[in-house]
Write a structure and sequence with these properties.
heterotrimer, A mainly alpha, B mainly alpha, C alpha+beta, A: mainly alpha, two-stranded antiparallel sheet, globular, B: mainly alpha, 2 domains, two-stranded antiparallel ribbon, about 50% helix, magnesium (chain C), ATPase_P-type_domA (chain C), P-type_ATPase_bsu_IA (chain C)
Chain lengths: ~600, ~190, ~700
Amino acid sequence: MNSSIVFQTGLYLLILAALAWPLSRYLASLLDGSLAARHGWIGQVDRAVCRLLGTDAEEDMSWWRYAMALLLFHVAGTVFVYALQRLQGVLPLNPQQLGAISPDSSFNTAISFLTNTNWQGYAGESTMSNLTQMLALAVQNFVSAATGIAVVCALIRGFVRRKASGVGNAWLDLHRATTWLLLPLSIVLALALVSQGVIQNFKPNQTAQLTEAVVYQQPKTGADGQPLKDAKGNPVLETVKASTQTLPMGPVASQEAIKMLGTNGGGFFNANSAHPYENPTPLANFLQMLAIFLIPAALVFMFGRWVGDWRQGATIIAAMTLLFVAMVGVEYWAESHANPLLVQLGMDGHAGNLEGKETRFGLAASALFTVITTAASCGAVNTMHDSLMPLGGLVPMWLMKLGEVVFGGVGAGLYGMLIYAILAVFLSGLMIGRTPEYLGKKIDAFEMKMVAFAILATPMLVLGGTALSVMLDVGKAGMANPGAHGFSEVLYAFTSAANNNGSAFAGLSANTPYYNLMLAIAMWVGRFTVIVPVLAIAGRLASKPRLAVTAGTLPTHGPLFTALLIGTVVIVGALTYIPALALGPIVEHLQLFGEVAR
Amino acid sequence: MMSTLKMVRPAVTLFALLTLVTGVVYPLVVAGVAQAVMPGKANGSVLQHNGQIVGSSLIGQHFEGPGYFWSRPSATGPMPNNGLASSGSNLGPLNPALQDAVKGRIAALKTIQPGQYGAVPADLVTASASGLDPHISPAAALYQVHRVAQARGLPEEEVIARVRRHTDTPLLFGEPVVNVLELNLDLAAS
Amino acid sequence: MSHSKNLALFDRTLAVPALVEALRKLSPTAQWRNPVMFVVWVGSVLTTVLGVQASLGHGEAPAGLIWSISAWLWFTVLFANFAEALAEGRGKAQAAALRATRKNVVAKKLASPSRTAKVQVLDSASLRKDDLVLVEAGDIVPADGEVLDGVASVDESAITGESAPVIRESGGDFSALTGGTRVLSDWLVVRVTANPGEAFLDRMIAMVENAKRKKTPNEVALTILLVALTLTFLVVCASLLPFSIYSVAAAGAGAPVSITVLVALLVCLIPTTIGGLLSAIGVAGMSRMMQANVIATSGRAVEAAGDVDVLLLDKTGTITLGNRQAAAFIPAPGISEQQLADAAQLASLADETPEGRSIVVLAKQLFDLRSRPLHDAVFIPFTAQTRMSGVDIGGVAAAMAEEGDVAVDIKAATRQIRKGAASAIKQYVVAQGGVFSDAVTQSVDDAARRGSTPLVVAEGARVLGVVELKDIVKGGIKTRFAELRQMGIKTIMITGDNRLTAAAIAAEAGVDDFLAEARPEDKLALIREHQHAGRLVAMTGDGTNDAPALAQADVAVAMNSGTQAAKEAGNMVDLDSNPTKLIEIVEIGKQMLMTRGALTTFSVANDVAKYFAIIPAAFAVTYPQLKALDVMHLTSPATAILSAVIFNALIIMALIPLALKGVRYRALGAATLLRRNLLVYGVGGILVPFVGIKLIDMALGATGWLQGI
C-alpha cells in the first residue's frame, strides 16, 4: 500500500501544498520588501549589500536595464565558471588530482549551469574537483535559480503596477532570493539529507577491500595509451582482477540541496540522484522531490497573493496539478508494464520495467521522480531515462516540450505558464468579444510579439537542432541506441537543453565538441529568448493602467480558465511536436508491442 | 551605453559576494554541522571489519560466487560497481544489446543454480540506474536462498532468517529491500 | 435608405466581380499582405513546379497526386481571395452608394464671410479647409462645413434617410452641415471644415476598401500570433524531411517523405481558415457599422466598442421619448379635476411645445374638453425670466387700451392663467398675495418622486393644482439594459433633471446609475472618474458643449445632427442621430472580435484531425506500425493527404457566411459565452474535420481516383 503510486502522489501533493502555502507568504513579503521593512536587521543587510555594490537600493529599473543587469551578471558567471574548470588542475581542493577540463566541455558546462539547465556532458566524480563543484557549480545553482525568481518578480510587478516605468531592482531581487530564500532552505535540506546518508566532507576518496574480488576484462592499452588492436582490428582485451572498490567522497549534501531547491539538477556524480550517496533512501528521495516543486509552487501562490486575488494563483496551481497527475498516471502505467521482449526471455514481468531503476525507490517513486524532474526544469534523475519504456520516455520529453510549465523551474515555470495564460486570454478574450486583458492589463500587439518570440524559440531550437544532428555524422555518432531510439536520444537532448531541463537520454555521447557547442547554444538561446521577452512584457504591462474587473471581464480563475489553460498548453505542445514524437517514442512503442503481438 | 557600463561593477561585485556566501561559507557550514552531529553518515556510511574498510552500506558490490547473494547487474565500466564511474546501461527497450545482456544474465543464474524454474526476478537481470545499487528485492533474495544455503551448507531457514534481518521495510515510501553487502558480510562472518 | 440595401450573401452582383477579383489577387504583391496565405501561395507555386517536373517524368511522387494537391492549394488561395473580395465588394457597394451623394458639384466660393461678397464658381473638389462658400436654395452642399451666417432648411435624406428637412443655422448646436445634403430654402454662408478626401464619408469609404484599410490594433496582434503559428509549423514541416531521411535509414524501409506531402501538411497545419478570412472579417465589421448607418473614423474605435464597460446615455431621446407628456391632473384642495384641466388646457392652447400639446390632448381625453378659439386671449409665452407661460383672457381690451394709453382695470376684465415650474408659480402667486398650500407642495413633491415633472397651474393668486408631465420611457429599453448588464456593461443615465426625478426614471428604465442635474463639466468628470478606475466609457453627444466629454470618452458617437465640434471630437458619427445606436455599436464591435476569436480557435483545433490523417499516411512506408494512428481508416495514403487538403480548402468556403455575418452575439455573461463558444468552435473544431476528412476520403475512394498511388 505504501508503495502505491496513488498514495505517494497524493501524500506528495498534500505535503507540497502544506509547505508551499506558508512559504508563499514569506516569499511575498521578502520580494516586495515588506520583510526588510519589518525586520530592521534584514533591511540593514540589504542596504549594506547595496552599498557594497555601489548602487541605490531604491533604483527602479526599466525592463531593459533589468535585463541588462541580469545579462552582465551572467557574463561574469560564465567567465568565472569557465576559468575555474580550465584551471582546476592548479587549484586547491582537488584530492583526485583531476586535470583541466577541455575547452568545449568547460564552455558547455558554464552555459549549462548558468542557464539553470545543468546538462552534464561529463561524469562528475571523475571530472570535477571539489573546488569546481563548490565554487563554480553550486554557486550557479543558487544564482541561476535566483535569476528565475527575479524574472518572475519583475513580471508580476508588471501586472500589479499601474502606469509605472520600472519593474524592480535586479541586484536586490537576486540578492534577496539567494540570501534570504535559497540559502536558509538549502542549509535545512542539506542537513536533512545528511541524516539520510548523503555525504558531506572534504576527504579524499576512500578505498574499501572487496569481500569478493571482481574479475573483469578491459581493452588493453599500449605504451602510447591507445587501445591495442589485434590483426583483425578488434580491440585486445585483458583480464583484470580488482580487489578494492573506491568510495567517492566530497561535499555532496550541500550541492544536492540546492540542486533540488533551485530546480537545477546537476548532480555531483554521474548517476545523479540515482547515486546512493546523493539519494540514499526513499525518504531522501521524497525530500528531494518535495524540494523540486517547493519554490515553484510557492511562487504560484505568491503570484495570487501579489496580484491581490489568491484564486488567480490557485487556478494556475490547479492547471499544473491536473497536468501533473495525468502525466504521473501515464508514466506509471507505461513503466509498470515490463519490456515484453525481456519477458519472452524468462524474466518475471510483474515488477514492471526495472532496467535503469534503483531497487530502493521502486517503480512508483521512480515514475513520480521522473515526472517531477521534467515537469520542473530540474533534470536530476533517479532513473535512467534512456532505459524507460517508449511511452515512459515520451512523458518526460513531452513535459519538457511544453516548456516546463507544470510547476516548472524556479521562476521559469511560472513565467512560462503566464506566457501560456496570456495566449489563452488572447484567444478566449476574443471569443467573448473583447480585446484581451489579463489581470486588468490589455494584451496588445507588443505583448503578442513577445509571447510569439518566447513560444517560437524553443521549437526552433529543438526541431532545428535535432534535424541538423540526425543529418550530420558527428550528430549520429553520438547515438548509443539504434533505430528510432537513437532519434529519441537526440530529440531528448535538444528538448532538454532548449528548455533548460538538463536530464538526458544519457546513452547519447554528448561530450563531443559538436554536441557541447550545439547544446550550449540551445541552452543559452532557450533561456534568454524567454527571459528577455518576459521582461519586455513586464515593462510594457507595468506602464499600462490596470482595468477594472466587470461582469464582462473574462474571469481568469475557476474551472473554466483552468481547463482553458490546460487546453492551450496541451494543444500548443501537441501540435508542435506530434510529428517528431511519432517518429521517436510513439513508433518505438508501436514496434515494441506490435512485434510481440505478432 | 554609459549606464550599462556603470552596471558592470555591481554585477561583478554581487557575483563575487554570492560566490563567497554560497560557494564557500555555505558548504563549510553544512560540513561543519554534519561532521559534528552525524559524522558516520556524512563520511559515507562506511562499513569496517577489523579496522579495515570493507565497503559502504550504501554502495553495492559485485558478487558472483554461489555462496554470496548476487547484487543487481551493474553497467559501470570497466568493472561492475565501479565507485568512480556510476552509470546505468542506457540501453533502450528495443536495443538488441539489452536483450543479449538479459539473456546472458538469465543464463548465468540458471547455470549457477540449475534446476530452478520459473521467471527470474526482474531486478536480478536488469541493470540498476547508478550501477551501485546496494539492494535487491526480497523476491530476488529468496530466489537465491536455495543456492546460497547449499553452497554454505546452511539450512535454508537460517539463510532466510538472515535475509529477513537485512530486509528494510520503509515506513512510508518505497519498497522493502535487502541490503546485499550487509547480508553477504553477515554470511561471510559466520 | 439608399446605401443599406440588404444584399444576399452570395448575391450575383457581388459574387461575380468577387470571383474576378479573387483571380486578380493571386499576384504575389497582393498575397504578401497576408503572411499566412502567402505561405499557401508559395506552396501552390512550389507544387505546381513539382507537378511539371513529375509530368516530365522526374517526379518525387506520382504526377496525379502532385497535381491534385497543387490544384487544391490554388483553390485554398482562391477561396480566401474570394472571401476577401466578397467582403470588399459588399463594402464597396455601400461606399458607392454613399459616394453617389458626393458627386462633384458646383461650389460658390466667397471671398469674405458675407452673403454679398464676391462669388467665384468652381468645382467642389478644389475646395480646401477654411474656404468660405455660399449655399442657396436648391444647391447641394459641396463639402462638410460649419454655418457662419444664415438660416436654411436642409434635406439630409441622402445621408440619413430621414425625409423631414432640418434647420441649420449659425452658432449653437445646429451649425454643422454635411456635404452631399441639399438646401431647400433660404441660404447659408459656410466655412468648409474638411479637405477633399478627408470628410467623414471619405474616411469611411476608405476603410471598407481593403487596400487603404489600416489593420486595427487587435488585428495586428492576432496577425502576429498567426505568423508565429505559421513559422512554428514551417519549422515542424521542414524538420520532418531530415527526420524522415534518418528514419528511412534507421528502419531500412520506405522512402523519405516527398516535398509535396510536406507542403500539403504545412498548408493543412497553418491557420489558413482564420488567415484566409481575417481581412474579410474586418471589412465585414466595418460594413456592418455602415449598414447601421454609423461612420467610424477608425477601426480602433470599432474594436474599442466591444470593450466598453460603461455607457453614458442621455436621458432624452435615448431612454425616454424626446418629449414629456401630460399624464394626470392633480387638483388643489377645493378645485375639481375638471376645473384644473380646463384651465390648463386654456393656458396651453397656444403652446406649441410637445408638452403643451399633450396637456390639451389629455384634457380632451379625460373630460372631452375641446380646444376652442379664443378671440379675447393674450398668450404669454415662456421666457427665461418668468419661467412661466399662460394666457390672459379678456385682456385684449386691456392690452389695446394700454396701447392706446387708456387706463382700464385689468383685473376686472381678465382671467390670468399661468403654468410653470413650482418655484416660479409660487413666486408669482405669493407676489399677488395668494397662498401656495402645503397640499400643493405635497403633490409637486409626489410627482417629482414618481419621475414626473410637475407643472403648477395658477389662476390669479389661486393655485389650481398640478399637471403631471411624465417622461415616457421607450418601449423595450429595460430589456435592452438588462442585456447590457448581462454583457457586463454598466449604463448611466445623464439628465438635467433633479435627483428625485432622475432616480425615478432611472428606476423605471432599469439603468444602473444616473447623473442628475448634469452639466457638461460633470459629464467630463464622470468619464474621467470611470476611466481612472480602469473602465472604458462610451457616450453619445451632439452639442458643442459635449465636445470635451466626447474627446475624453473611449468610444464617442456624435450625432450627425450635432455640431461640427462634436463630430470632430467623437470617433464615430451616427448618421441617423439615434442615441440608442450606441448599444448596436457595442454589439457590432463585440461581434467582430468574437468572429476572429472563434475562427482562430476553430482553425487551430482543426489541426488535430489533420495530423491523424497525414502523419500515418506520410510515414507508414517507413514505419508500418504508424498505421495504428490512422483512426479514421482512410482509403490510402494518397487519399488521406488529399482529403485533408481538400477539407482545408472547403472549410474556408464554408465559413465565408460566418465571417461576413459575424458570430451571433448573445447577451450572456463572459464565462457562459466563453463556455458556449469554446464548445462550438473549440470542441467542434476538433471533431468536424474528422467527419469532413472521412467523408471526402470516402468520396475520393468511391471515385477510385488516385487508386494505386
